[in-house]
Amino acid sequence: MYLVKFFSFCFLCSFLFCQCLIDLEKEEEGEREKSLLGLILINDSLSPFGMAQQRFAKYSEKEVLLVGGDSQKANMMANVYKLTENRVSFLGSMNKRRYQHEAVTLQNGKVLIIGGYDGRLILPDSEVYDPSINSFSIVSPMNIPRTHNTATLLNDGRVLITGGFGKQSEKLKSAEVFHPGTSSFELINDMNFSRRRHTATLLNNGKVLIFGGDGISETLSSAELFDPATNVFTLVGQQMSVARSNHTANLLDNNRVVLSGGYSFDINGNYSYSKSVEIYDFGTGNFTLVGNMGESRGAHGSVKVGSDVIICGGGRFENNIYTEPTDCYKVSNLGILNKESYSLTTSRALFVFESIGNSILACGGENQFGQIRSCEAKSTNNFDLLNSQL
Question: What is the mean pLDDT of residues 167-188?
């Protein structure tokens, strides 16, 4: 009896020790991530409930769902908000607290929310939000816990999930698809490289282009193409002009993708930020530089408005200096980059950035002073703060 108790005690101690190592590794990864993004949370002068790293999904032309996120006062959040052209409203809570997760609108108008980090564990957990009855339902979990992954709605109704950061600090190259008919996940062929903080862009032909991200030992400049007919990833022949992670990627006409900014680190751990903007043309297979923004940045926002792409905000940390530009740029469908006359009223990175109705909205995020509760909208010439906030 004493031996049973002794070995049980030893097993418990061993488990707790291993869990502490995993938590410590995750904590160290988080600190490195903040340094890479140039975002350190010094105080909370802007708001006691500011939120960053929320995920959002546009489920109608005038409504966007904001889910989860990270708050300095409440750690990981389960809060859910609805964002319209001129107001942000609290809707309730998800079943799980999470940030660094993903959210994507399904063809039936519901929103799938997957993975993320709850402050202790990387999650496989998934749930679906039904806006018609304002409720969340738990569905089958993913096959692999992940955070910093992508989730892309395919033309056949499935959702493609790629890469990310797995448990025990594993950088993933695995992929799976969500089947809405059965609310289940299926593992498919792996990508060619492990990636996290990469982008995935659905082309007009139904294929998906995966760009950049952090690899095993350095940031990647490679891209690969997913074919939903075969569930196979194929490397693109050319590479981006620079390696990019925490960049943006938006679809232009004729299966062209505009990529902007981001950071990169090499095998020695040295990191830098990019100010460049380039376009990948699926038809020719070529990357073409179209210009530079005034300042380099990562964790910025970009959104398609009409036939143009608007890029705003973000931040960087270089030479022990935090810089968070508020300026905005437009990339036309012709591939011409211009600085806009307007800018954000508040510097922000890791924020929600979406077009709703006739407005562009920026909401939440964080900067060197803390996490941000405010939201702002541009409907005519300038961004103006909304009266409501997170």
Answer: 94
